[in-house]
Amino acid sequence: MNIPPRITVIGTGYLGATQAVCMAHLGYEVVAVDVDPAKVAALASGKLPFFEPALDTLLVETLATGRLRFTTDFDLAAEFGDVHFICVGTPQSSGSDAADLRYVDAAFGELARRVTRKALLVGKSTVPVGTADRLAERIVELSPAGAELELAWNPEFLREGFAVEDTLRPDRLVFGVRSAWAEQMLRAAYSPLLAAGTPVVVADPATAELVKVAANSFLATKISFINAMAEVCEAAGADVSLLAKALSYDDRIGGRFLKPGLGFGGGCLPKDIRAFRARAEELGVSAAVAFLHEVDQINLRRRSRTVDLVRELAGRSLQGVRVAALGAAFKPDSDDVRDAPALDVARLLYLEGASVVVYDPQANANAHRAYPDLDYADTLGEAVDGADVVVLLTEWAEFVTADPEDMGVLVAQRRIVDGRGALDVARYRAAGWEYRALGRPAEV
Ligand code: NAD
Question: Cα(64)–Cα(217) distance, rounded to whole angstroms?
């Protein structure tokens, strides 16, 4: 098709807001819909309701072009779009490991009931394999006469903290389609990226759905692999940081995602590997991904091990011990605290009676909403002031580059647990700090 397709984006969270802004930046006309009126109002006025580097300025720039609109009006979206990207959340169900698909079902339903012409509904949310086929049948049932709706799946691989870069220059695009027309529509919707040479894998929708959960399972496994080695190192008196370094020179292994530490969290990896196991069980292939249970358990054990290190450094029970918890977000350059290891460690310390003060450069507000009982500081200095133990939980640049001498003046005791293996141990030791890290002997 020569005229660029008109785009809608349904759901304007981390993924959808990025998709909408980047599509408008690439030159498309975009209508973005969310059920949350406060979020829509904020976005429409150029305010990003979450922290994501570069997206805030790109939002303002693209709004100024007039190509991007935010609304709660599904009728407008249904009438407007040739290609509808569905980007709503798929959290873990409460009470089970399975994905909660109610938002995806609702979003597809809202469109299917309204669209009266030929259009492509494209799922971008991460879903259990088989969801697209189920929804394709449902759409037919819900569609008014005359509508010609087709469904495709186009999983998303962006990383929070790099969302704009990953959307404008993705490693690859995956199109899960059932017809040449659907492929052609997706090619038209991504034509600037394809012209720039982005590789595309064209597959059936089930394979496309699986690519995303397989990728996340692999990444989670790589992280938990090195953290399992950290556990062995702890028992054997070996040093996992040197082990990881030595492994990383092997091209077949590589050093990325091989950093020992507090492990993974966030709104994707933990719930995606759990949902994958739940779906595999339904498909009768639970043995094939049973290892993901261990991946999850290794990851969770790093949190309690970090608490052990704080206790060991304090030299006594944590009752009344003043701990500075540096970080709350699940990773740096994000304000996302969903299943954040940092916040979980802060909570565990608090439950053991420690007096915990949390500081995160961007995530304090979200962390406070999730755990109002913890104390929060507005600055790094305020957090470490009078601390008996400092624990690094999210490797923000502000923490990694902090001067151990300056921090040493503020704390009650120069003791630090490096939960991310990110600090310069020699500098800390030289400044008189007792330093402990996961997977490394105390004397290193
Ligand atoms: P999010 O919670 O930040 O955003 C979801 C948005 O959908 C919210 O704004 C919510 O109000 C809206 N919504 C819910 N129901 C709706 C409906 N019926 N109609 C319109 N809007 C509705 O979630 P997210 O982090 O953006 O993730 C969305 C999906 O993308 C998930 O499946 C996730 O696994 C996947 N994903 C996320 C990332 C990431 O880094 N965040 C990366 C790749 C894939």
Answer: 40
Ligand 1 contacts CB of residue 74 (under 6 A): no
How close is the Cα of 11 to the center of ligand 1, in Å?
A: 6
Q: Quick one: tokens of 280?
A: 């595999």
Query: Which residues are documented as binding site for substrate?
Result: 157-160, 212, 257-261, 265, 331
What's the complex ipTM? 0.99
Distance 100 CA to ligand 1 centre (A): 12
Report pLDDT digits (tens) over 60-102.
999 999 999 999 999 999 999 999 999 999 999 999 999 999 9
User: Closest residue (by CA) to atom 22 of ligand 1?
Assistant: 11
pLDDT band at 443 (very low <50, low <70, confident <90, very high): confident
Grouping H, G, I as helix, E, B as strand and the rest as coil, residue 139 is helix
Q: Do domains 7-203 and 238-437 have the same CATH topology?
A: yes
pLDDT band at 146 (very low <50, low <70, confident <90, very high): confident
Q: Which residue has its alpha carbon closest to ligand 1 atom 2?
A: 89
CATH number among 2.160.20.80, 2.40.50.100, 1.10.150.20, 3.40.50.720, domain 7-203: 3.40.50.720
- Please state which of the four CATH numbers 3.30.450.20, 3.40.50.720, 2.60.120.20, 3.20.20.140 is assigned to the domain occupying 238-437: 3.40.50.720
268 assigned to active site? yes
Q: CA geometry: angle at 256 spanning 254 and 262, to 5°?
A: 130
User: In this structure, which amino acid lies at residue 232?
Assistant: V
